[in-house]
Amino acid sequence: MKIQRSNQGVKLWLSANDTYNWAHKAGSSWPCSTLSNKRLFAEFDGSGDLIDLSVNGRTALNVDGVEFNAIVADFVPTGPIVLNV
Questions:
Q1: Quick one: CA dihedral 30, 31, 37, 40, positive or negative?
Q2: Which of residues 50 and 85 earns the better pLDDT score?
Q3: Is this model's pTM higher than 0.70 or not?
Q4: Could you say which DSSP state residue 57 is in?
Q5: Which residue of 19, 21, 32, 40 lies most exposed, with the fewest beta carbons within 10 A?
């Protein structure tokens, strides 16, 4: 997993292992996951709007929105952007 935060927005990269482990974690699994064991990239602008999305390196057109929101919420911490200078 890699997260890049700036004043311009947030970029999130999840490996196939990250999405698999997220979908199969004990006590909080996602049994019908469409993202499990797939690489995921998502980019959000400074307002939080989604501006880019790919799954396994391809433009993602059919992604379950509820699952996508859940995985992003679990991996991207909320709060103000803090830059390490």
A1: negative
A2: 50
A3: yes
A4: T
A5: 32
Domain tally for the chain? 1
82 located within any domain: no
Residue range of the domain that includes 57: 2-75
pLDDT digits (tens, 9 = 90+) for 9-19: 999 999 999 99
pLDDT digits (tens, 9 = 90+) for 54-70: 999 999 778 899 999 99
Element (H, E) at 23: helix 16-23
**Cα–Cα–Cα angle for 47, 67, 29, nearest 5°?**
135
Torsion-angle region of 27 (φ positive above 0: left; ψ -120 to 50: alpha; else: beta)? left
Q: What angle do CA 23, 56, 69 make, to 5 degrees?
A: 45
Token pair, residue 13, equals: 């990269």
Continuous segment of H or E residues that includes residue 56: none
Within 8 A by CB and 6+ apart from 34, the residues are 62, 63, 64, 67
